[in-house]
Amino acid sequence: MKPILIHTHFHKRRTGVTRSIENVLPFLSKKIETYIYGYNVDGLKISKGDLKKLLFSKTKVIVHCHRNNELLRMLFYRFLGAKFTLIATRHSDTEPSWLTMFLLKKADKVITLIDQMGKNLGIKNTVIGHGVNVQQFIPKNEVVLKEVAQKKIILCAGRVRKSKGHLTLLNAAKVLQKHKDWALVVVGTVDKPAFLDELKIISQTLEIDKQVYFIQETTNIVSYYQAANIVAVPSFTEGFSLVTLEAMSVGCSVIATKNVGVHSTLIKHAKNGYLFAAGNVGELENLFLKMIEDKSLNTGANARETILEHWSAQKEAENLLKLYLSA
Predict the structure, then answer these.
(1) How far apart are CA 86 and CA 227, in angstroms?
(2) Are 101 and 168 contained in the same domain?
(3) How confident is the model at residue 1 (pLDDT cuts 50, 70, 90)?
(4) Residue 80: phi, psi to the nearest 5?
(5) Fewest beta carbons within 10 Å, which of 12, 106, 167, 209?
(6) Does residue 65 share a domain with residue 192?
(7) Domain of residue 123, CATH code
(8) In terms of domains, do 83 and 164 share one?
(9) Could you tell me which residues are beta bridge partners of residue 131?
């Protein structure tokens, strides 16, 4: 008899972690009875009462946690005598705190997202990269963004904060001065309003403020990818970088920072995307200029093919299922 799988999600915001869970649920549900315990995530929910009944029964249960608060909840049940298999995914490539390490060591299996993260963690783990929903993130021609006056777009999606490289992005966007039919569209939640003000001042100083748009986080992000000609991911740090997979799945030409998250594993420079050194304004500016002026540098078709072959949510779900059943 196959076990019952439960993914936990206790977080006020929808993040890349949220999307990664939602991406694999449809595929997992076809193979194994699957539920969500928590909130702010789409999926078949299980109540606290029903969860407790399962955990303290003879039913085989696998619980997959993604954050410390979730691990703490489940370890409390284990302390009370509940019997279940505990899986934990480490989503960050930063040095883990003592609490994080303590909790991860309590899990039966630990998942990391990229090879370097797995090597740095210091405990036994299995590397399983995220996948993207290739049926949702699909290429589509002639998508127009009503709020953007220009028809050609450089897009940057994700949280707006210094570690995501937005200062590098805005300074490199001065190439728009000579290309008035191009726009830079930044979509994402702003962590600190003062930082957004700083970015706006840069765009005004460079005299491109009429070509730069800041748009709040949206559930309609697919349309923004579909409307974009270029997607920039200039971050200094990433646990993985699901945005890059999504953009490539839609068939965008992606420019991302090398040796950050999954970028250098995923992207073969000048074949299915482009890589540049984090913080190097001149290098990013030069790539923007070349791609704006030479349509033959478009790598979107190859990018889509890479995702379909190696980075689909279905493939991630298959790898997760193997781990679940082996545990």
Answers:
(1) 41
(2) no
(3) confident
(4) -80, -5
(5) 12
(6) no
(7) 3.40.50.2000
(8) no
(9) none
Residue 144 located in a structural domain: no
Phi, psi of 160 (to 5 degrees): -95, 105
Q: Are residue 209 and residue 111 in the same domain, yes or no?
A: no
Can you read off the two tokens belonging to residue 61?
């249960």
Q: Answer yes or no: do 50 and 33 share one domain.
A: yes
Whether residue 273 is contained in a domain is answered as yes
Domain count, the chain: 2
Alpha-carbon dihedral sign for residues 187, 190, 193, 194: negative
SS3 171: helix
Per-residue pLDDT, 138: 97
Query: Residue 112 pLDDT more than 90?
Result: yes
- 19 and 35, same structural domain? yes
- The CA distances from residue 81 to 51, 57, 71, 77, 78, in Å, are 14, 10, 15, 7, 5
- In terms of Cα–Cα distance, which of 110, 111, 106, 97 is closest to 75? 106
Other beta carbons within 10 angstroms of residue 270's beta carbon come to 12
Domain that includes residue 252, residue range: 152-310
111: tokens are 């998942």
Q: 302 and 319 share a domain? A: no
pLDDT band at 219 (very low <50, low <70, confident <90, very high): confident
> 3-class secondary structure for 241-255?
CHHHHHHHHHCCEEE
- Kindly report the length of the chain: 327
Q: What is the residue type of 148? A: V
Task: Name residue 64's beta-bridge partners.
Answer: 7, 87
Reported pTM: 0.91
Coil, strand or helix: which one is 187?
A: strand
Let me know whether 193 and 64 are in one domain: no
The edge-to-edge listing of strands for the beta sheet with 85-89 is: 34-38, 4-9, 61-65, 85-89, 109-112, 126-127
Spatial neighbors of 58 by CB under 8 A, at least 6 apart, are none
